[in-house]
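Supplementary Note 3. Input sequence used for the single-chain structure prediction.
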Amino acid sequence: VQLQASGGGLVPAGGSLTLSCAASSGIFSMDAMAWYRQTPGNQRELVASITRAGVENYQATVLGRFTISRDIVKNTVDLQMNSLKPEDTAVYFCNAVLRSGMIFWGQGTQVTVSS
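The predicted structure, written as discrete structure tokens, is reproduced below.
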């Protein structure tokens, strides 16, 4: 499975961005897909995930501001990010977990929120 992330950029605080992750194979067959983020010197952390059943999960710091969604026809998983804060600045990665347990990562996309 190949994952292609896009949509990062520079945005002022309070602004919005939408990240998109395009998968090379059917996302409906995947156990879960997620967005993670990482800042220098820190571990990658889960931002939001969506299971095959459509159950969404969010990190507490983004709850109410970020929304994860998927398009089964287009094989994409998006992360709509609103009310962005400087602390949201990070490299964002998309992730897919197959039913077999195999995990795949896309390349990162930089999100920078200016204060």
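The chain has a mean pLDDT of 95. The longest strand covers residues 30-38.
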